[in-house]
């Protein structure tokens, strides 16, 4: 049977642009500010010179020698530590970015995930259910939670880090929304309790890291635990009207692996799609930024 593996990139960004990639780095514009930071998948050459990168960048992430994720932001031009950008889809989601919150290269936004925000919004608006219940696991700073809430869902947002849950609240408020349910907990422990309680959700969003820690030091290793987590999610998903999105950023994982995981754990998988998410720089170089599998049953 012939199967299409999709490659998807966002359509509605105006406040974000991938300017250039290469040399294990990426140069990006977030609103009015340009940042340079590490990108392990950009193994090709830059299109612009290093001098051009340096002259354009408001801030550069200087990584530690032994850990490409950790380091510090070096400001070259005046830049606020907090600023807001907007995603120009029909819901006009607004998000707050922050350079000072952590010692990591992340600033509170994964722009390629806008593809999934569109899917979430479209699906929720088509579900024949008023205020469908949506669970966002490993929810980080909550862009997907905000997108689901803006579309009319009753959202439960879970992350193990209290600091980023607080950040998520600010994102909700900046989009003039309210009443998201906030949970600071270990994702596996929480969904096991939800299964025991007999709770159900119309939508489940998972964007697990390769490695992580729960609030009490619980260890998360993607390849060892994602199969069990999907088994539990299959028990939590409403059987009649539902959707699920699984997104993973791991250099060793393909979307075919995601497809196998989902298909082996869910009895019914309707309207399935899987593939890669990517962004395109000014020089038409495509930067892959994770794989996804998603399905939905609307009618």
Automatic annotation (TrEMBL):
One GO biological process term:
methylation
Question: Taking every annotated instance into account, which residue ranges of this chain make up the domain S-adenosylmethionine-dependent methyltransferase?
Answer: 131-244
Task: Tell me the domain of life.
Answer: Bacteria
Q: Which organism is it from?
A: Belliella buryatensis
Name assigned to this protein: 23S rRNA (Cytosine1962-C5)-methyltransferase
Q: Which GO terms describe its molecular function?
A: methyltransferase activity
Highest classification ranks of the organism? Bacteria, Pseudomonadati, Bacteroidota, Cytophagia, Cytophagales
InterPro entries according to UniProt: Glyco_hydro_b, SAM-dep_methyl-trfase, SAM-dependent_MTases_sf
List UniProt keywords, sorted A-Z.
Answer: Methyltransferase, S-adenosyl-L-methionine, Transferase
């Amino acid at each position: 049977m012939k199967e299409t593996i999709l490659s998807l990139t966002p359509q509605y960004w105006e406040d974000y642009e991938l300017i250039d990639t290469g040399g294990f780095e990426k140069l990006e514009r977030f609103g009015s500010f340009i940042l340079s930071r590490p990108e392990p998948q950009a193994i090709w050459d830059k299109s612009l010179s290093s001098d051009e990168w340096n002259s354009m960048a408001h801030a550069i992430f200087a990584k530690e020698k032994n850990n490409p994720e950790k380091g510090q932001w070096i400001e070259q031009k005046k830049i606020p530590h907090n600023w807001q950008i907007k995603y120009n889809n029909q819901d006009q989601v607004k998000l707050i970015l922050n350079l000072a919150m952590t010692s990591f290269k992340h600033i509170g936004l994964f722009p390629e995930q806008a593809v999934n925000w569109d899917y979430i919004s479209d699906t929720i608006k088509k579900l024949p259910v008023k205020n469908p219940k949506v669970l966002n696991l490993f929810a980080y700073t909550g862009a997907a939670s905000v997108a689901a809430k803006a579309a009319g869902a009753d959202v439960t947002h879970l992350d193990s880090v209290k600091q980023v849950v607080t950040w998520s609240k600010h994102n909700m408020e900046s989009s003039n929304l309210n009443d998201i349910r906030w949970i600071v907990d270990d994702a596996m422990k929480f969904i096991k309790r939800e299964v025991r309680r007999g709770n159900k959700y119309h939508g489940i969003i998972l964007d697990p890291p390769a490695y992580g820690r729960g609030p009490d030091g619980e260890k998360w290793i993607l390849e060892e635990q994602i199969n069990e987590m999907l088994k539990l999610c299959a028990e939590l998903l409403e059987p009649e009207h539902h959707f699920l999105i699984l997104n993973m950023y791991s250099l060793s994982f393909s979307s075919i692996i995601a497809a196998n995981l989902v298909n082996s754990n869910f009895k019914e998988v309707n309207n399935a799609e899987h593939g890669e998410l990517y962004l395109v720089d000014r020089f038409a170089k495509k930067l892959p930024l994770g794989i996804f599998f998603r399905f939905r049953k609307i009618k």
